[in-house]
Amino acid sequence: MAALGVFLISLSVSAGLGLAPPFLGWPHSHRSLWAQPSSFPSRKALLLPPATMLGNLMLLPFLLGCLRMTSGQTFHMGKCPDPPVQEEFDVAKYLGKWYVIEKLPSNFEKSDCVQANYSRKENGKFKVVNKELLLDGTINEVEGEAFQVDPNEPARLQVKFNWFMPAAPYLVISTDYKNYSLVYSCMTFLWLFHVDYAWILSRTPQLHPETVEHLKSILQSYEIGTEQMRPTDQLNCPANM
User: Fold this and answer.
1) How many Cβ atoms from other residues are within 10 Å of residue 197's Cβ?
2) 39-46 contacts: CB < 8 A, separation 24 or more?
3) For residues 55 and 212, which has the higher predicted lDDT (pLDDT)?
4) Backbone CA torsion sign across 216, 104, 38, 62
């Protein structure tokens, strides 16, 4: 539930897609670990009038042009993968502070010291506070709300940072609660292609390289590419974060 971005916000405004993911939600960088859940179009969506269908097709050149301009993004044809999540997930053990060690993609998170803090709210949902150190040395902070959507799979959460943007999925694929967490999210565009988001989190600013590689191998086993994952600098971060 920790720290997607400017590019997606741009698409949402320019193309009217109304998309948004989970670790995003930053006012400036809009990053967060949640993305539009992958799903098949509803029956109503499948019965779009010809004019609407034509409008969607006319968006394709624009979207494909955006893909070419964002070489760091991990766009793929087809629907989002659906990896299994952590079994018997205990959200109470998951609460607290997490540091972002590596993330995918890197385009939306070029700042340092990215971290997230989760706490329980009185309404049964969870408070999400994401922080980052901007390039000018200021600390950027954004608050959101996370919630579980299926009691049978408590590791499948959704997060929402702004009332005008839809909630996005936050899938805890693997965690030991005390050291690491592997989080995945994905957004589907026009049911034709998708973009992956992933975060390797740690309870401390550093995580053993072997653990990082192991978590990457889990993503790879579900055909989620890790070549574009980039580390987050957690050194010399302000004490007041």
Assistant:
1) 34
2) 39/188, 40/79, 40/191, 41/191
3) 212
4) negative
Is 234's pLDDT higher than 80? yes
Nearest C-alpha neighbor of 63 from the set 8, 6, 129: 8
The set of residues, in sequence order, having a beta carbon less than 8 Å from that of 32 and lying 6+ positions away, is 1, 2, 3, 4, 21, 22, 23, 24, 25, 26, 128, 130, 142, 144, 159, 161, 168
CA–CA distances in Å: residue 62 to residues 11, 26, 54: 9, 25, 14
Residues 152-156: what's their mean pLDDT? 97
Task: Using the predicted structure, report yes or no on whether residue 232 has a pLDDT greater than 50.
Answer: yes
Look up the pTM and report it. 0.73
**Per the structure block, which two tokens stand in for 7?**
């590019």
User: What token pair was written down for 143?
Assistant: 């608050």
Rounded Cα–Cα distance for residues 10 and 16 (Å): 9
Read off the DSSP letter of residue 178. S
Identify residue 11 by its one-letter amino acid code.
Answer: L
Tell me what the mean pLDDT of segment 215-220 comes to.
98
Q: Which domains does the chain have, with CATH numbers?
A: 6-231 (2.40.128.20)
Question: Rounded CA gap, 191 and 2, in Å?
Answer: 26
Would you place residue 38 in the very low, low, confident or very high pLDDT band (cuts 50, 70, 90)? Answer: very low
Residue 197 pLDDT > 80: yes
